[in-house]
Amino acid sequence: MSPETASSQIARGATEGSREAPHHPNYVLIWGILVAALAVSLFIGYMSLPVVTVVLIFTVAVVKAYLVLSYYMHLRYEPFFVALIVAAGLACLYFLFFGLVPDIVYPPSP
Amino acid sequence: MGTAAESGFREATEVPTGRLGMWWFLASELVIFGGLIATYLLFRWRHPEWGAESVHTINAAGAFNTLVLLTSSLTMVLAHAAVERGDLARAVRNLSFTFLGGVIFLVVKVYEYTHEIQEGFTPLTNLFWSFYYGMTGLHALHVVGGMVAMMVVRSAVAKGRDPQRVEFVGLYWHFVDVVWIFLFPLLYLSS
Amino acid sequence: MTTAAAHAHPESFLRTYVFSTDHKTIAKQYLVTGIFMGIVGGLLSYVIRMQLANPGQSIPGYGVIGPQQYNALVTMHGTIMIFWVAMPILLAALANFLIPLMIGAKDMAFPRLNMMSFWVFFLSTVVLLVSFFVPGGAAAGGWTSYPPLSGTAAYSGGQWGVTLWLLAVALEFVAFLMGGINFITTAINLRAPGMRLFDMPLMVWMQVAAAVIFLFSVGPLIAGALLLLLDRLAGTGFYAPAAGGDPILFQHLFWFFGHPEVYVILLPGFGVIAEILPVFSRKPIFGYRMIVYATIITGILSFIVWAHHQFIAGIDPRLATPFSITTILISVPVAVILFSFIATLYRGSIELASPMLFALGTLAVFLLGGVTGIHLGVAATDIYFHDTYFVVAHFHYTLIPPVAFGFFAASYFWFPKMFGRMLNERLAHVHFWLTFVFMNLTFLPQFKLGFMGHQRRIVTPTFFEALRTPEVEQLQSMATVGAVCLLLSQILFFANVAWSLRRGEKAAPNPWRANTLEWTTPSPPGHGNFDTAPVVYRGPYEYSPPGRSEDWFPQNLAPEKGAGS
Question: Which subunits have 3 or more CB–CB pairs within 8 Å of chain C?
Fold first, then answer.
């Protein structure tokens, strides 16, 4: 969805009194998936494939965070601009991280 | 703080004002923890030898604590669902379970710290351990903060007041959970 | 919506004036604290300037100044002026006062959080002032507080100075995070019926943009300051190369916040101008939407320019070109905003009232600040200019326009709304011209000093042979005369305020014939702001609309039946 749509969502007129119906996904099922994901990442941890392990473990972590954010924190039921708040924070961290790589990861040799 | 709705403010978007404020607050927390995690990642990348250090963290304790926090997130969201159904007694019960989860998490954390310090890994041992204690310490402080807020909300809800706050403290608690989801592989698993 | 009458119950003195949750009272509390700190910061600059003009001589009212003290004064001058003057006045005071009034809300979204924000800020002020009197003196590592200078007590003079500095700054950040979350949420959700996003006055846009930029940029620095605190207090080595840490990390984290911070201060200043120019030109603002988009683009770009502060700090040379390019790029949206302001004046019926004078003064002075920024943004020239008086002159030319001129413009414009009295116009004109002339007298010579290679942050310039020339001494004396006169000129402002508060002409609700919602309230507005909840029908800048006898068209005025607009 474009930022234009997001701003039109903010701009939309008042909707007092017409609160959205509560969303209740199957919370216990999601918990089950999260625990299974934890087991998977532990299992991966015991494999000894350096790069693959790191990538897999962090993929699992991202999946877990996504599940908590969208279902437990109800982000998928919020208007798009709320997700945009989180995305903006992540974008800032992205700039910060890659701006620092040349200096912090590869310091000039003394 | 009282919600906008009850003090007669209008809400120009479909997101209630309290929840919207909460999301902005979490965004500010996100960049604080994110900055710390980014810094750690950069140093971790610079020092491949830290892999040998993270072997000394207790994987089983970290994994157990992840399970505890995930479960407490479940009871937290069940408390919120109970509020939306109007079942306040059930909400209070679930809040208590969540609080208990926080207690168990902290007890395990204290056990870990004690064990590691006895093994000779203090915050001053080297930079990896400085990061380990710094990051988990800041996270533990957030857990404590969340538990205090939860107790305040719980006692209000038990008297039937401000049930909408369950959702706000819940958002915060899930955020603390998400941070731990990343700290666990960063500090324990990636050796 | 309930009206003000519902809030008429009497409240205690403490609740009304001290622990108030009313956004207007909190704005005044921030304002008074900010002005007080402004006086402190101004007096520090007096001592600094006197020392530079007459190195080693006793300074009237202070005495002889040593190197350690000089470093502490420079550090504290910078810290105070940015964090304890610009931020509380331009952001906290103006946003608190104006956002609810301009969007037609009766208060902030979270009034109690708002009160807490001020008191945390107040605590931070006390901590900072206390740090002047601890053993070893105040922090002396520069307002950027780079390690290793700030990393250990051995380098920073004393254990307590920098520690208290870090604590005060951290508390201040927390206060402004609370305030910022409040501003953003209020502007998104509490707008009056009918007010779409693009009906908001530009001041609200700018304040919200500033709050969002602050919120996203400050996080990594809070984390970084925490690590620095651990280095100092616990003895960790996050910034110590010997322990595997890296001092350059702090520079990156600082400027990742520090550069966006420039726009955090600048944008509210621009917001003030955007409100004043249309009123005193009797014309709609030129390119409302363009200004909004340019503001958003400026905000986004401000996150990827930070390393231009570190070109000679030993960063990877490959970073220099990308950061030079983004730095030049960011001047494009800022120029769009400036040219829109100038185009607003074109063919307007301009009235040179005191707010307008200061608004135009802001544009004139900022232009020079912006242009000299190009020299510092390009790595090739920055290598020569870095750490010279050219930099000092440049950032005073960029920050004094929003912070001093913008604040004065806002004061002359909104004082009637805030306190219910008009300020004396003639005194205001004298104040403007003296401020404008002496500001330039203070900082223009410093550009020249910078060209001549005069370093900043040295206590005794005459120590270096190259700086022992009559020309350098003359320029330093000019700057000092300018600074002292600039400080003295501000007495006019305070006298004007003191006199007008008691004897000033009573202000009508809308003395400037302006459109925005704050002018529909009584002067000063009561608790709850609006007697009847306003409904918005049009944008904020419809001046001299065709087919209307008056040359302004308030946002809340219902369209006449049949007229159809």
Answer: A, B
> Is 1.20.210.10 the CATH classification of the domain at C19-200?
yes
Prediction ipTM score: 0.93
Residue closest to C348 by CA, chosen among C58, C551, C500: C551
The reported pTM is 0.93
* CB-CB neighbors (< 8 A) of A100 in chain C: 249, 252
- On whether the CB atoms of residues C302 and C259 are closer than 8 A, the answer is yes
Any B CB within 8 A of C177 CB: yes
Q: Which chain C residues touch B130 with a CB distance below 8 Å?
A: 230, 236-238
Q: How many residues does chain C have?
A: 565
Tell me the per-residue pLDDT of C493-531, one tens digit each, with 9 for 90 and over.
999 999 999 999 999 999 999 999 999 999 999 988 998
Q: DSSP letters of B57-88?
A: S-HHHHHHHHHHHHHHHHHHHHHHHHHHHT-H
Q: Where are the domains of chain B?
A: 17-189
Summarised one tens digit per residue, pLDDT across range C61-112 is: 999 999 989 999 999 999 999 999 999 999 999 999 999 999 999 999 999 9
C524 neighbors C418 (Cβ within 8 angstroms): yes
Residue boundaries of the structural domains of chain C: 19-200
- The helix-helix angle for B127-158 and C202-233 (nearest 10°) equals 120
Q: Which amino acid is at C323?
A: F
Chains with ≥3 Cβ pairs under 8 A against B?
A, C
Interface contact A45, partner C, CB < 8 A: no
Fold held by B17-189 = Four Helix Bundle (Hemerythrin (Met), subunit A) (1.20.120)
Q: Is there a contact between B23 and A27 if contact means CB atoms under 8 Å apart?
A: no
DSSP lists the bridge partners of residue C552 as: C543
| Min distance B55 CA to chain A CA atoms (Å) | 11
